[in-house]
Specification:
Layout: H1 3-16, H2 21-24, H3 42-58, E1 67-72, E2 84-92, E3 96-109, E4 120-127, E5 146-151, E6 165-177, E7 180-190, E8 194-207
Antiparallel strand pairs: 1-8, 2-7, 3-6, 3-8, 4-5, 4-7
Length: about 220
């Protein structure tokens, strides 16, 4: 086997090597790019291998897959003065990003039994900050972690003095995570006669940093 064939075997081994998933989610820059028919040296191949080695070693301590979850069923959770409904706190061993998901119910009382009932709007947002200043409309919304309900004014939402009508919702967003304690918020605002959030489950999964994504509809 001549020298070029040996190098070809080495490159084939590199191409078929099981690259960790965390590297597949990010770019690995190699110092040399080879094309068919180009003479290459073993030092160039070794430098490319070294680039992969450095990339793998730099990701060894990234705790991708670490997960946290918490559950809360408040009796009457309405928005606080700063807008937050629930506070989710967890401790991360490293900085990075987390896929955060909230599953929650909202019990709503509208004005269906009034002389002139009107529609009302319930909005929720997963965020790094407590806030009561957010909104989203159907034509220009670009807010990950947002969820809403429009409740028809003539929809009965309470029988006698019983509980309010419950709607189940979910919201998710990729949010930055720092080393140590992290605090995230489920926020809420509404224009109904009453709106109570619960039960609430919030979970976070450490993920490798990804690129931008878009979502469109016809």
């Amino acid at each position: 086997m001549n020298r070029n064939k040996k190098i070809g075997v080495a490159l084939g081994f590199l191409a078929g090597f099981a690259v960790p998933a965390v590297l597949m989610a990010s770019n690995v820059d190699t110092p040399h790019t080879f094309t068919s028919g180009t003479t290459i040296s073993s030092s160039q191949v070794n430098e490319n291998f070294a680039a992969f080695k450095d990339a793998v070693n730099s990701k060894q301590d990234l705790p991708v897959g670490t997960a946290w979850s918490a559950f809360l069923y408040p009796l009457a959770a309405g928005p606080a003065t700063d807008g937050h409904i629930a506070t989710f706190t967890f401790s991360a061993p490293a900085a990075g990003s987390a896929l955060v998901t909230a599953h929650f119910g909202v019990r709503v009382r509208n004005t269906f039994d009034a002389a002139s009932p009107v529609d009302c709007h319930v909005q929720s947002l997963l965020s790094e900050n407590a806030t009561n200043s957010f909104t989203c409309d159907t034509s220009g919304c670009a807010t990950p972690g947002y969820a809403d309900i429009w409740v028809n004014g003539n929809l009965p939402t309470q029988l006698g003095g019983g509980t309010y009508l419950s709607f189940q919702q979910s919201a998710s967003a990729v949010l930055p995570v720092k080393v140590g304690t992290n605090t995230l918020f489920l926020n809420g605002i509404h224009s109904c006669a009453a709106a109570l959030w619960g039960p609430i489950t919030i979970s976070a999964i450490m993920v490798a940093n990804g690129g931008n994504a878009t979502l469109t509809s016809p």
